[in-house]
């Protein structure tokens, strides 16, 4: 099992760092899946993570100048590791001006992802900073938990309002209630609602637009749906807040699929990174 | 005592105080003939800092004649005087420090623009002299670097990191985070930065060695050094012996003395006998005891001498080497059996707890220097009461 990769472009390094920063704000630990073409940061949506699921996909060619992978077995060219993204974020943070950053899978006192950055110096010999990040190798028998989640059979799909605006609203609502209801319809309208004994607050968004999903089953279902009818789901407000807090870069596309009373599926698409986040409904 | 600091030096003084606040909770102030000494020490006595401002630093420098004056104050109070560094720079023209002996107060008056006067009356407590004993020149290893280099180095370590290990060889130096806890070791992230000797202004390494010390205090010094742009000199020996960080210029001498971890079996493996043989034998006056590894920072204290008493303990020499002094004799006698009593101490005996050796987390007991003690082994020395002056037990850094 071998993994070696190298980043030499400053822009790629910055971009990769931002992605890792976002992941580190979303979860304390997650699974890193390495395949020949992609990297995935995965949270499996089990009880341990509060039912929250995450799937972040990066195309390795957009970040790494060199990328060599030898998977766990000849027929399975893939490696699956459990990492603490905060460590990775910390290691990358101070290496932003590095001439080159190498990431390797190594065995020190335990399996580690070793990040080595060549820092610029005035002397002829470069300054090297090495970070050994302990990881856990996930055995193959557990890999089925970390497969790409299938698109849920949603009731409504809608583009999200600007994330910053949403974050401001949700931040204030969090002071009033632990639960939030997100509802949307096929007319491009979305509401964020909280309700307590003393007060109810609703924020209305209009003209958001609904993504055209094309010829799949869900589209068929939503075509027959009354565009005015709202699909809604009640979620733990902190989970939504955590998702919004982590976003550092404005995505090219941001949308949300709502399965009535079941789940909120948030999708953010950047140029070379896609992030999906699932928040389950609470009673 | 009457001192005036003008212009840009006010900011330097302020930075020194902020830097000292990273060490301990109390500021020890002692106007000496060779300058004003501001000192601090941490509660576990494993870190000590001294800023010595020469008389030339001041536009006026008058010290109390007659008996030596020494005091200590809560450092937060002094910090409050110099709170906002940026506004200090812009508005304060001079700072006047005056002693009001009658009321036991030190008055700090900031003369600001537009005729504004800010007066702070800070009360102080009489204190013993605080002075670490160390000898920079006898250290086997010395590095000197621009503060920027060290700042860039510590940047790679998280602010929460307690201890850092520094290893040197002939050509290189490595900085690593030190992981103490056994349980942590398998899960902790390890960071290592390697610098080559040509990044340093001066790089003299006696033998390969590796020491571990607290990063917080290094950061405290760097905050000061970076603002002055003066190079930082690092003097150290083998693990267990103190590390000295120095910043000097014509009007100022700063020394931070930090304890290093000893009893680390990993580090012991580094230090083979060659290291010890390579070093020249210590001078006879030095604290010696055969057990070099347990020697670490020794803190000298002496009673605050009244007007009729014996002269105040030594005027500090730049090297701070220990010489036999009446005050040291006091220690020793008390330690042994209390049979011989210093008459001068009699009245104070009942009120004050006995002088103690300082135990710190990092190292064993300290041996006062005296030729009579060379035969005494560490084991026979008792541990006395912990520092009674630290009534407000500050939490460890």
UniProtKB/TrEMBL annotation, chain A:
Any one Gene Ontology biological process term? telomere maintenance
Q: Report the principal subcellular site.
A: cytoplasm
Q: Which domain of life is it from?
A: Eukaryota
**Segment forming the signal sequence:** none
Q: Where in the cell is it found?
A: Cytoplasm, Cytosol; Nucleus
Q: Enumerate the InterPro entries for this protein.
A: DNA_clamp_sf, HUS1, HUS1/Mec3
**Quaternary structure (record):** Component of the toroidal 9-1-1 (RAD9-RAD1-HUS1) complex, composed of RAD9A, RAD1 and HUS1. The 9-1-1 complex associates with LIG1, POLB, FEN1, RAD17, HDAC1, RPA1 and RPA2. The 9-1-1 complex associates with the RAD17-RFC complex. HUS1 interacts with POLB, HDAC1, FEN1, PCNA and RAD9B. HUS1 does not interact with RAD17. Interacts with DNAJC7.
Q: What does this protein do?
A: Component of the 9-1-1 cell-cycle checkpoint response complex that plays a major role in DNA repair. The 9-1-1 complex is recruited to DNA lesion upon damage by the RAD17-replication factor C (RFC) clamp loader complex. Acts then as a sliding clamp platform on DNA for several proteins involved in long-patch base excision repair (LP-BER).
Q: Can you tell me which family this protein belongs to?
A: Belongs to the HUS1 family.
The identity of this protein, by name, is Checkpoint protein
Organism name: Coregonus suidteri
UniProtKB/TrEMBL annotation, chain B:
Q: Which residues form the signal peptide?
A: none
GO cellular component term of the entry, any: checkpoint clamp complex
User: Which molecular-function annotations from GO does this UniProt entry contain?
Assistant: double-stranded DNA 3'-5' DNA exonuclease activity
Keywords, comma-separated and alphabetical = DNA damage, Exonuclease, Hydrolase, Nuclease, Nucleus, Phosphoprotein
Region Disordered, annotated ranges? 264-290, 304-397
Q: Where is this chain compositionally biased, Acidic residues type?
A: 338-349, 387-397
One of the protein's GO biological processes: cellular response to ionizing radiation
Domain of life according to the entry: Eukaryota
Q: Where in the cell is it found?
A: Nucleus
Recorded catalytic reaction(s): these are: Exonucleolytic cleavage in the 3'- to 5'-direction to yield nucleoside 5'-phosphates
Stretches with biased composition (Polar residues) = 368-380
* InterPro entries, per database record: DNA_clamp_sf, Rad9, Rad9/Ddc1
Q: What does this protein do?
A: Component of the 9-1-1 cell-cycle checkpoint response complex that plays a major role in DNA repair. The 9-1-1 complex is recruited to DNA lesion upon damage by the RAD17-replication factor C (RFC) clamp loader complex. Acts then as a sliding clamp platform on DNA for several proteins involved in long-patch base excision repair (LP-BER).
Family listed: Belongs to the rad9 family.
Protein name, UniProt field: Cell cycle checkpoint control protein
């Amino acid at each position: 099992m071998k993994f070696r990769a190298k980043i030499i472009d400053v822009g790629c390094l910055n971009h990769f760092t931002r992605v890792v920063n976002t992941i580190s704000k979303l979860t304390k630990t997650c699974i890193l899946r390495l395949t020949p073409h992609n990297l995935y940061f995965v949270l499996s949506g089990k009880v341990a993570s509060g039912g929250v699921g995450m799937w972040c996909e990066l195309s390795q060619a957009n970040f790494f100048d060199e990328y060599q992978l030898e998977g766990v077995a000849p027929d399975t060219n893939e490696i699956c590791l459990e990492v603490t993204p905060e460590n990775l974020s910390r290691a990358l943070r101070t290496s932003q001006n590095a001439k080159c950053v190498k990431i390797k899978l190594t065995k020190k006192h335990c399996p580690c992802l070793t990040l080595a950055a060549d820092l610029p110096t005035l002397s002829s010999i470069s300054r090297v900073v090495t970070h050994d990040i302990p990881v856990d190798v996930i055995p193959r028998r557990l890999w089925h938990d970390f497969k790409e989640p299938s698109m849920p059979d949603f009731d409504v799909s809608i583009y999200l309002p600007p994330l910053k605006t949403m974050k401001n609203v949700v931040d204030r609502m969090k002071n009033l209630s632990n639960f939030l209801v997100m509802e949307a319809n096929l007319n491009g309208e979305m509401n964020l609602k909280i309700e307590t004994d003393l007060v109810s607050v609703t924020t209305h968004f209009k003209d958001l637009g609904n993504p055209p999903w094309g010829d799949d089953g869900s589209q068929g279902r939503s075509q027959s749906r009354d565009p005015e009818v709202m699909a809604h789901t009640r979620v733990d407000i902190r989970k939504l807040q955590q998702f919004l807090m982590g976003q550092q870069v404005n995505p090219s596309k941001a949308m949300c699929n709502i399965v009535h009373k079941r789940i909120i599926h948030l999708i953010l698409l950047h140029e070379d990174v896609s992030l999906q986040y699932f928040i389950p409904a609470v009673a | 005592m009457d001192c005036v600091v003008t212009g840009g030096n006010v900011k330097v003084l302020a930075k020194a105080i902020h830097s000292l606040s990273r060490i301990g909770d109390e500021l020890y102030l002692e106007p000496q003939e060779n300058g004003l000494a501001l000192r601090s020490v941490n509660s576990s006595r494993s870190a000590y800092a001294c800023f010595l401002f020469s008389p030339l630093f001041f536009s006026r420098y008058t010290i109390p004649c007659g008996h030596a004056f020494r005091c200590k104050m809560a450092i937060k109070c002094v910090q409050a005087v110099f709170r906002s560094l940026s506004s200090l720079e812009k508005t304060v023209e001079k700072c006047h420090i005056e002693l009001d002996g009658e009321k036991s107060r030190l008055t700090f008056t900031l003369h600001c623009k537009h005729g504004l006067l800010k007066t702070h009356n800070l009360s102080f407590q009489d204190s013993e002299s605080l002075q670490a004993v160390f000898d920079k020149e006898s250290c086997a290893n010395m590095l000197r670097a621009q503060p920027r280099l060290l700042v860039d180095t510590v940047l790679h370590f998280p602010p929460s990191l307690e201890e850092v290990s520094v290893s040197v060889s002939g050509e290189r130096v490595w900085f690593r985070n030190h992981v103490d806890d056994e349980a942590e070791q398998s899960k902790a992230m390890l960071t290592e930065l390697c610098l080559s000797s040509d990044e340093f202004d001066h790089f003299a390494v006696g033998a390969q060695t590796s020491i571990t010390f607290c990063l917080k205090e290094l950061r405290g010094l760097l905050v000061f050094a970076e603002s002055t742009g003066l190079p930082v000199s690092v003097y150290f020996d083998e693990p267990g012996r103190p590390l000295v960080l120095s910043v000097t210029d014509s009007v100022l001498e700063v020394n931070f003395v930090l304890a290093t971890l000893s009893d680390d079996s990993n580090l012991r493996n580094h230090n083979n006998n060659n290291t010890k043989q390579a070093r020249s034998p210590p001078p006879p006056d030095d604290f010696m005891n055969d057990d070099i590894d347990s020697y670490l920072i020794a803190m000298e204290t002496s009673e605050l001498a009244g007007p009729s008493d014996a002269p105040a303990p030594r005027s500090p020499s730049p090297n701070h080497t220990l010489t036999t002094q009446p005050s040291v004799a006091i220690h020793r006698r008390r330690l042994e059996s209390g049979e011989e009593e210093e008459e001068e101490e009699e009245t104070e005996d009942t009120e004050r707890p006995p002088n103690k050796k300082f135990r710190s987390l990092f190292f064993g007991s300290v041996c006062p220097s005296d030729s009579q003690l060379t035969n005494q082994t560490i084991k026979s020395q008792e541990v006395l009461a912990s520092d009674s002056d630290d009534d407000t037990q500050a939490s460890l850094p």
